[in-house]
Design brief:
- Two copies of one chain form a homodimer.
- Chain A has about 240 residues and is an all-alpha fold.
- The radius of gyration of chain A is 18 Å and the shape is globular.
Chain lengths: ~240, ~240
């Protein structure tokens, strides 16, 4: 039996979802951050994750296109700037490409998306469609995985630098810039969701939106694990590591 | 019989469409700029045109959401900034509301959209849907009415200031800021269209897109003329001038 929650209870419930379902808990991340991946596995991760990065501003533009509220559009516009940058060499996508460059992947190959696992494509596109098709409140709530990302990013930065000789601080520039943006964005989205989810039905929808988004990120790691860790069954056409 | 055109021929054809179909030629604009409108008619124009202004960033966000190209997204993002501003009192929509304020319209009423003519709503929404549903090239081409806007804006600014004692330079701030933005935007879009329309089919689609957009603007003035000039048949529920 569900009842109407206070704002504090909404936040507690969202954080509980993160504690149970955020992809920080995925076995692939334990391998990645713990230095247990081969270079080929790290490449596969960065290559597949590139598609997620590349689609984020498209997802955010869809969200902006659904906002009647100028202020909300202006605030969300910052995310476009964070990801696309103010110039070609700036922004989150450009920094992610520094990572794939640093890992020795050919940039044209990465950007072509030819090496993606199909499950990566489906998961990322499910996220974009969710933001186009659900309510604006659910679309905003689905961004709330950012609440949990500063922690995973600091683990990743530390673990990858310590454990992989093929990874440099310069290569990991993406992860240095990202946490303050994620904090700012998730604080806004959290406050928005708490203020606007005022019925049992919308509160449940908000929780489902965050669970859905956790599923998206989790499914991407499941696909990587299946293809590149165990049982190492790479989908036809997907990236095959050379080492 | 249609043949493949050079870039110069494409531009000439686009300018020819503007010369024949841009709403500068509409009888309502002759009345408006020539000082022949009543205050109520000017109010009706500003009120209805507000919806077009308000939907432009939504249209542009849809367009950004369709771009795979980061550079194109960055360039188009400037339009979001122009219309939504960097703060609540800035940007094209805020300046349009200074116009409706200056004309004595209640701001809540304007923003509520309750007074719109249905045909205004349908025309504006047809434009947003066009940008969502047609090719990216056609979506970009549909913005090319901006090629012709600096001229109409200077006529409007001069004509309205000279002819209406209820209009001040401050009220018309929108039109002072707009021409350099329109020049920058239309130069980019024109170059894009000339470079990317490389088949007979896409060239024809580009011309049709500009004709469509001219139709949108023209239909908005037809609706105003019908309701407020002749035969003065105001749709049920739409704005009724008090003077």
């Amino acid at each position: 039996m569900t009842s109407l929650l206070t704002e504090a209870e909404i936040e507690a419930r969202l954080r509980e979802i993160g504690a149970r379902r955020y992809h920080r808990l995925h076995p692939f991340h334990h391998l990645l951050h713990g230095g247990k991946c081969t270079k080929g596995q790290v490449q596969a991760w960065a290559l597949n994750r590139y598609y997620y990065q590349a689609m984020i501003p498209i997802k955010d533009a869809h969200l902006i296109a659904r906002c009647d509220d100028r202020q909300l559009r202006r605030i969300w516009r910052e995310r476009l700037i964070d990801h696309d940058g103010r110039a070609e060499q700036e922004g989150g996508i450009a920094r992610w490409l520094k990572l794939t460059d640093g890992l020795g992947l050919d940039r044209d190959y990465v950007v072509s998306l030819r090496g993606l696992l199909p499950a990566t494509r489906f998961a990322v596109e499910a996220y974009v469609h969710f933001v186009q098709e659900k309510t604006l409140l659910e679309a905003i709530a689905s961004s709330l995985t950012e609440l949990f990302s500063p922690e995973i990013i600091s683990e990743r930065l530390e673990g990858m630098l310590k454990n992989y000789d093929f990874v440099s601080a310069n290569t990991l520039a993406y992860f240095v810039n990202r946490p303050p943006q994620a904090d700012r964005d998730s604080n806004f989205a959290l406050a928005y969701v708490k203020r606007h989810a005022r019925t049992v039905q919308t509160q449940q929808a908000v929780f489902a939106a965050l669970e859905f988004k956790c599923d998206v990120l989790w499914a991407m790691l499941d696909a990587l694990h299946h293809a590149y860790v165990s049982p190492k069954q790479i989908s036809p056409g997907a990236f095959v590591p050379s080492e």
